[in-house]
Design a protein that fits this description.
single chain; 239 residues; twelve-stranded antiparallel barrel; 12 strands
């Protein structure tokens, strides 16, 4: 009951339509209405031998596809449109022990013009994700970021402009009680590039997966050391 109430309160927070969103790579995936996407858990980070579809739940239209991936190309992932035409490529590289940088290249596999750089940091003292832009019209610094708990799929993506010193919610990630197992939803405000929001979800998905793997390894190591200490103590007591 409490969990549902919390989700309802989260969903009650409105997304703010954008008239001139600086993060639009093109107008192709910018809609005049709010869009709800359905995505798979680990859709970006998991090696998959099948094509992954990303749908607009309102129209049931397949907006994007992710081709099957292999380990050799895991650092370079191409997002395709519903007709399997390349839309944008995202390349990742590690930054420190818990961070990563993601370069975004709109276009086909050989596109070389970088649109933006995304940074993620899975530490308690850093913002989990940020993208910095310069508004070409006003010259103001603009930042995109995330608040909430991504691992629980309860997060809000916001835009903040240095010109107005204001923060606006432009997308949210969540699950409903009837959301299919292994999937989550993303609402995207009108006027916002849906493709860029999918890339943000992909970067967060990949980094959260690495964070979970690292935590599992750390927990196993701690358990192993505790078992050794217990065994050593038992031997000492027996002696």
């Amino acid at each position: 009951m409490g969990g549902n109430q919390s989700t309802d309160q989260f969903l009650d927070k409105p997304l703010i339509p954008q008239q001139r969103f600086v993060g639009n790579m093109s107008q192709r995936f910018v809609r005049p209405r709010e869009v709800t996407l359905e995505l798979e858990d680990e859709f970006w980070s998991k090696k998959h031998d099948h094509e992954i579809e990303i749908k607009d739940l309102t129209s049931d239209q397949v907006l994007f596809r992710l081709a099957p991936t292999d380990q050799a190309n895991s650092a370079k992932v191409m997002l395709l449109d519903g007709f399997k035409v390349p839309v944008v490529r995202m390349e990742s590289r590690p930054i420190g022990p818990r961070g990563a940088g993601y370069s975004v290249y709109p276009g086909g596999p050989s596109a070389s013009t970088r649109f933006c750089e995304m940074k993620t940091e899975m530490t308690p003292f850093e913002k989990p994700m940020r993208i910095d832009f310069v508004d070409r019209v006003t010259g103001a610094q603009v930042r995109l970021g995330i608040t909430g708990k991504w691992l629980r799929r309860t997060s809000m993506i916001w835009i903040e402009s240095g010109q107005w010193d204001a923060r606006y919610s432009i997308a949210r990630v969540y699950r409903k009680p009837d959301t299919p197992e292994g999937k989550f939803l993303m609402d995207v405000a009108s006027g916002v590039d849906i493709a860029l929001m999918v890339l943000i979800a992909g970067a967060m998905d990949e980094q959260s997966k690495k964070h979970e793997i690292g935590k599992d390894k750390k927990d196993k190591k701690a358990a192993k050391e505790a078992a050794k200490a217990s065994k050593k103590a038992s031997k000492a007591a027996a002696a």
